[in-house]
């Protein structure tokens, strides 16, 4: 009897791996694109904040659990040559900001303004609960471009003052 | 019966099974899921993650399964059948289990009602408030050990106050039973909820302790055939009850050993992490706690991204991103944690079957990933530059 019970015991103990159940994976696992951006993030880092060619956008709030810092370096023709980001946020937030830095490189300022959060969300297949991450990424790039524009305006004003 | 070392070995080997032995079921898959299955199928030799989430649920102790199996296939009678041996043998097993549960909390077996879990027990207790005889009576309900931060409430004092004011005292002891010594008479508890799957027992069963002296009168939540002295109708599931009883008996025998083991591992984990990583806060009182539930906040790193980084370890977080709303854990908010720290918290759950190797692995991975994520964090960068984060006006989204 003990042996029979023991045998009956051991069988259920052998592998019952359910973690890869399709429905579970669809809902709870991260999309592989998000995981890819997270494990191999592109363009993490900082540019020189004080340089006149660099625009910095800092959006979000720690109390909300999402802060993105996006920096762009623009050459004299108005084309974005480099972009860097740093993010305090969930995997989807990191992926959204990483994707945005990839997209803006090589674009002109006007083109970069047209980046929409819906494009980011579609590219990363973000679920509805994570859509705010893509919105914040759009805000970040807009803030960076705005900062650059303000800097350029200040420089022009300085130049006009100096020449007078 | 399996010895403890054998059961630990089996638990350990359950984690290391490679994935090529798995059959994928693709019959009930939607279109979105299909792409994800492809990505999952590629990771053929992936191992399951380590389990460090003992507050969410616990694996069944193999000795509990041993105790239950005969009642699934051989002794399958209804314990309320009075007329034949099948009923008698199931009833005697059920009563034996009732005694095992009662002994763990120093109660009388007549004071234990089997339910489907702690949630049902809680609901039954709250309903008492509405149906009570004395109109001015109220009910105090307190969690013995909190499931998010592990803090233990001063139950003895609360019980004393309630008894002196003639107020019923209910406590949800799901995370405390079998982990800290409980005596319902010393604590002056009138009602106590017990959960099976939190103490290495089966899922789907729990119990409610209902004091007899002084009598606690209750209205049943579930009406029917009058089982469990009319308090909870419905056939008592003998195998599950036997499993709960066995789990309680094992817990009572091994309570001290488990407590020492879990304290040792917890101290090891916390010391390792805190010695290598700055700006880590442990949430909750350091003294009045159950050591196996550790909630740490890693400043400047977001909780969900850290969970994603620690994908080889099954953990849980008090962070907002894992819930549908953007609100962080209410428990952390209640103890006055800063909102940004509340988003940065992770709960480590250590249990009977945790090993030193698992704790070391978790600690090392944690240290490594926190460092990496801090490099990616604008908040860390600002702090390194000497900026006071509280002085910044953040843009609200």
Automatic annotation (TrEMBL), chain A:
Keywords (A to Z) from UniProt: Iron, Metal-binding
Coiled-coil residues: none
GO biological process, one term: [4Fe-4S] cluster assembly
GO molecular function: iron ion binding; iron-sulfur cluster binding
Gene3D superfamilies cross-referenced by the UniProt entry: 3.90.1010.10
SUPFAM superfamilies tied to this protein: SufE/NifU
Chain ranges of the NIF system FeS cluster assembly NifU N-terminal domain: 29-153
Recorded family membership: Belongs to the NifU family.
Record protein name field: Iron-sulfur cluster assembly enzyme ISCU
Lineage per the UniProt record: Eukaryota, Metazoa, Chordata, Craniata, Vertebrata
Automatic annotation (TrEMBL), chain B:
GO cellular component, one term: nucleus
EC category name: transferase
Keywords tagged on the record: Iron, Iron-sulfur, Metal-binding, Pyridoxal phosphate, Transferase
EC number: 2.8.1.7
A GO term, aspect molecular function: cysteine desulfurase activity
Keyword Iron-sulfur: yes
Cofactor(s) listed in the protein's UniProt record: pyridoxal 5'-phosphate
Annotated Gene3D superfamilies: Aspartate Aminotransferase, domain 1, Type I PLP-dependent aspartate aminotransferase-like (Major domain)
Xref: InterPro entries: Aminotrans_V_dom, Aminotrans_V_PyrdxlP_BS, Cysteine_dSase, PyrdxlP-dep_Trfase, PyrdxlP-dep_Trfase_major, PyrdxlP-dep_Trfase_small
A Gene Ontology biological process term: iron-sulfur cluster assembly
Membrane recorded as keyword: no
PROSITE patterns for this protein: AA_TRANSFER_CLASS_5
Family the UniProt entry places it in: Belongs to the class-V pyridoxal-phosphate-dependent aminotransferase family. NifS/IscS subfamily.
PANTHER family per record: CYSTEINE DESULFURASE, CYSTEINE DESULFURYLASE FAMILY MEMBER
Protein's name in the database: cysteine desulfurase
Source organism of the structure: Esox lucius
Encoding gene per record: NFS1
């Amino acid at each position: 009897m003990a042996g029979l019970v023991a045998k009956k015991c051991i069988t259920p103990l052998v592998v019952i791996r359910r973690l890869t159940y399709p429905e579970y994976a669809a809902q709870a696992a991260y999309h592989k694109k998000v995981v890819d951006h997270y494990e191999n993030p592109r363009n993490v880092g900082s540019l020189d904040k004080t340089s006149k060619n660099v625009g910095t956008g800092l959006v979000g709030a720690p109390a909300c659990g999402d802060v993105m810092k996006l920096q762009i370096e623009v050459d004299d023709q108005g084309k974005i040559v480099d972009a860097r980001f740093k993010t305090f946020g969930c995997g989807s937030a990191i992926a959204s900001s990483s994707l945005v830095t990839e997209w803006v490189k090589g674009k002109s300022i006007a083109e970069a303004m047209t980046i929409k959060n819906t494009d980011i969300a579609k590219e990363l297949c973000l679920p509805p609960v994570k859509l705010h991450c893509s919105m914040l990424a759009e805000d970040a790039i807009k803030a960076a471009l705005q900062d650059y524009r303000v800097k350029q305006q200040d420089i022009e004003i300085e130049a006009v003052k100096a020449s007078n | 019966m399996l010895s403890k070392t054998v059961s630990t070995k089996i638990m350990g080997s359950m984690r290391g099974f490679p994935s090529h032995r798995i059959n994928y079921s693709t019959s009930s898959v939607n279109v979105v899921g299909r792409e994800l299955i492809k990505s999952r199928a590629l990771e053929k030799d992936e191992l399951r993650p380590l389990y460090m989430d003992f507050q969410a649920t616990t694996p069944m102790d193999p000795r509990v399964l041993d105790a239950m199996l005969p009642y699934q296939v051989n002794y399958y009678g209804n314990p309320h059948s009075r007329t034949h041996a099948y009923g008698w043998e199931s009833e005697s097993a059920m009563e034996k289990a009732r005694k095992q549960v009662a002994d763990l909390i120093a109660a009388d077996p007549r004071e234990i009602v089997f339910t489907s879990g702690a949630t049902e027990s809680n609901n039954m207790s709250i309903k008492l408030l509405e149906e009570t005889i004395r109109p001015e009576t109220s009910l105090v309900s307190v969690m013995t050990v909190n499931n998010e931060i592990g803090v233990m409430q001063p139950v003895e004092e609360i019980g004393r106050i309630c008894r002196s004011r003639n107020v019923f005292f209910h406590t949800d002891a799901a995370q405390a039973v079998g982990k800290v010594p409980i005596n319902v008479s010393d604590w002056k508890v009138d009602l106590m909820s017990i959960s099976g799957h939190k103490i290495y027992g089966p899922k789907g069963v729990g119990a409610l302790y209902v004091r007899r002296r002084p009598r606690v009168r209750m209205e049943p939540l579930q009406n029917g055939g009058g089982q469990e002295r009319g308090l909870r109708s419905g056939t008592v599931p003998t195998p599950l009850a036997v499993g709960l009883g066995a789990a309680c008996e094992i817990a009572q025998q091994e309570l001290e050993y488990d407590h020492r083991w879990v304290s040792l591992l917890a101290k090891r984990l916390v010391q390792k992490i805190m010695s290598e990583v700055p700006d880590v806060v442990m949430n909750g009182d350091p003294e009045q706690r159950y050591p196996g539930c550790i909630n740490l906040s890693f400043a400047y790193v977001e909780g969900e991204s850290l969970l994603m980084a620690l994908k080889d370890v099954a953990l849980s977080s008090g962070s907002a991103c894992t819930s549908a709303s953007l609100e962080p854990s209410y428990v952390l908010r209640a103890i006055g944690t800063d909102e940004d720290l509340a988003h940065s918290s992770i709960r480590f759950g250590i249990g009977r079957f945790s090993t030193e190797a698992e704790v070391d692995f978790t600690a090392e991975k944690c240290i490594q990933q926190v460092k990496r994520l801090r490099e990616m964090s604008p908040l860390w960068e600002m702090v390194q530059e000497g900026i006071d984060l509280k002085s910044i006006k953040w843009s609200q989204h």
